[in-house]
Specification:
Shape of chain A: globular
Shape of chain B: elongated
Strand content of chain B: 15-25%
Helix content of chain A: 10-25%
Largest interface: A-B, 34 and 22 residues
Helix content of chain B: 40-55%
Distance between the termini of chain B: 38 Å
Strand content of chain A: 35-45%
Structural class of chain B: alpha+beta
Oligomer: heterodimer
Radius of gyration of chain B: 18 Å
Number of strands of chain B: 4
Order of helices and strands of chain B: HEHEHEHE
């Protein structure tokens, strides 16, 4: 829990002292670092939320007030989505002036409601464009942390608001966020399984393929230029790599199955092929040519996923019987078993921000649940439970969230949760079943 | 216009039937049939080999016909793993038929994973029917093969 939510009425000095003690003796929740003039709040895993007063953007009226209202909503929704903040309503006297101009910030009023951070701004029209001037203050240090202007056309309010959200979160956590990221997924909404994409928050759903076949396991390249997916357009499951700029498509021209691609270092795709008889994992170039074979075991090897540096690959293998997750060192080829708990473990997804791997266990109860484990096998934690089948975990590019499929409310739908399993909620409202989400690495 | 055309077509077909039918009926017709698998297994069950022999007989009767061997899984487990498992089932069926003399060039194994269930229930009775290799005959003077079940 946040200390600051309980601080009403306590003097600023005591709060600072408490925070300082916490920083020194316990896992720090907030850490003030004077690094290149930046303020960084380092949140411990599972720590409390940052108490933020998000003020309404001031505007002169008319169009500007409409823009301000939309920007306020975008910023607020974006920050709520992050689950990093406890957003407090602004005290009535937080700004001295309220006539479209920003007055001084009333830090006393902010402290009295327990705010740690204050963000507010003004919207105006400049040179035919929308202009958003934002300021962010540390309310304890009464210090300006960020002052930045965002400019764009009328139809770019959403990306302007998200640019501010991204700056604020990077300022406070030291991590780049995900406000420019996309999630690709499969839906049978049209009657056949096609690939779709949406923004990080489930907005802006677009259909990408119209193949009227079965299209599966889409994944975007780290730079967003290519989409790799498996489709049955040729009559059998074939890997396709589509250049999204010119719509050119290459495929792997080999017999047998080709399923579940994953990008490695942005330059190549790992996928399961079976043209040599057994289902093995190979590296493939974006032009469809095969670079090399990675696995060599009797039985199924499938679902590769790579550490951020590309040096290690987690994958599913049935070499010992039922499927379990293994890790292979890409240079030495040495392979070790990662999962020993649960008899059926599949769908590994390596966090882009560290050594955690999310995966699914088919449990004795019949539930399928998402677990997370460190790459060294320690720190096993169940993230879902008591909610039927939860599958296909995929990390947000900053590693703070996981998108997944669940049939907890009937049909298969997409959900998101924090990386510790908290705050599980529906991502989007689309007809039909949605499945196999994959969150982009670009952000 | 329409009805006389239909009648004409019908007349044609009847005529052809009368001429061709005796030749088709001559050999006892062999039906293609599915084989079934245990949970998470791609090894053939004992009774499966009898059906595979019949499916091979179909190939012998339909010398220009080809077979698509579809590998299927039940809905349990995860899709990606089941894509691989379905292929192993299709290959197990195909390999057995090749071993008893079938021409591999006339057979193609395709995995559908859990994408095309036959039975739509969520119980072992349905799952057992869905863990299967399904055979689709194409070409040749074939008795019409059962069409692949539609995806739900």
């Amino acid at each position: 829990m946040t200390t600051c939510g309980m601080n009403s009425g306590i003097s600023k000095g005591i709060v600072t002292a408490v925070l300082l003690l916490w920083c020194l003796f316990l896992s720090p929740f907030l850490l003030h670092a004077e690094e290149q003039g930046e303020y960084i709040a380092i949140r411990k895993q599972g720590g409390g939320k940052i108490a933020l007063v998000l003020d309404r953007a001031s505007a002169k009226g008319g169009k500007e007030s409409e823009w301000a209202k939309e920007l306020d909503k975008t910023v607020k929704d974006g920050l709520i989505f992050s689950n990093l903040f406890s957003i407090l309503p602004p005290p009535s006297n937080v700004r001295a002036g309220s006539d479209g101009k920003m007055g001084g910030v009333n830090f006393g009023a902010l402290s009295s409601v327990g705010a740690e951070v204050y963000a507010g701004g003004a919207v105006s029209k400049k040179g035919g464009k929308v202009n958003l001037d934002m300021e962010v203050y540390d309310t304890f240090g009464t210090k300006l942390l960020l002052k930045k202007s965002y400019s764009g056309k009328e139809d770019q309010l959403r990306s302007m608001g998200h640019a501010f959200c991204a700056d604020l979160i990077e300022l406070l956590t030291g991590k780049k966020s995900y406000f420019g990221s996309k999630i690709v997924f499969v839906s049978n909404k049209s009657g056949s399984k096609e690939v779709y994409q949406c923004d990080f928050d489930g907005q802006g759903v677009q259909q990408i393929t119209s193949l009227r076949s079965i299209s599966l396991t889409p994944v975007l390249s780290p730079d967003g230029r290519y989409l790799a997916y498996t489709s049955y357009t040729s009559g059998r499951p074939t890997l396709y790599i589509k250049n999204l700029a010119d719509n050119k498509i290459s495929s792997v021209a080999k017999n047998g199955v080709s399923v579940d691609p994953s990008w490695r270092n942005g330059s190549e795709v790992a996928t399961t092929l079976s043209f040599e008889g057994d289902q093995e994992i190979y590296l493939v170039r974006p032009d469809g040519g095969i670079t090399r074979r990675l696995t060599n075991s009797k039985g199924i090897d499938v679902s590769p996923t790579f550490s951020a540096d590309g040096r290690q690959m987690a994958f599913v293998s049935s070499r010992n019987g039922l499927p379990q997750i293994f890790i292979q060192d890409m240079q030495s080829g040495l392979t070790r078993r990662l999962t020993y708990s649960g008899r059926y473990n599949t769908q590994p997804s390596w966090s882009p921000s560290g050594n955690k791997i999310a995966y699914t266990t088919w449990e004795k109860t019949g539930e399928i649940n998402i677990f997370v484990i460190n790459a060294d096998g320690s720190g096993l934690k169940r993230l879902t439970s008591g909610a039927r089948e939860n599958e296909s975990p995929s990390w947000s590019p900053d590693g703070s969230m996981i998108v997944f499929t669940s049939n907890r409310q009937g049909g298969k739908k997409l959900y998101v949760m924090s990386s510790n399993g908290e705050n599980q909620r529906r991502l989007l409202q689309v007809d039909g079943d949605q499945m196999q989400p994959s969150w982009s690495l670009f952000r | 216009m329409f009805i006389p055309g239909m009648l004409f077509l019908g007349a044609c077909c009847c005529q052809e039937d009368v001429v061709v039918a005796p030749e088709v009926i001559a050999p006892p017709s062999v039906e293609l049939g599915d084989i079934f698998f245990d949970y998470d297994k791609s090894e053939l069950r004992a009774e499966a080999t009898q059906q595979l022999q019949k499916n091979f007989d179909w190939m012998k009767q339909n010398v220009t016909g080809t077979l698509i061997v579809e590998g299927h899984c039940d809905e349990r487990g995860t899709n990606e793993y089941n894509m691989a498992l379905g292929e192993r089932r299709a290959n197990a069926a195909k390999d057995y038929m090749v071993n008893i003399g079938a021409d591999p060039a006339r057979m193609q194994a395709v995995s559908f994973g859990e994408e095309r269930p036959f039975a739509l229930g969520h119980d072992e009775a349905s799952w057992a029917q869905n863990r299967r290799a399904h055979f689709v005959g194409q070409g040749g003077a074939a008795p019409a093969a059962a069409p692949a079940p539609e995806a739900k």
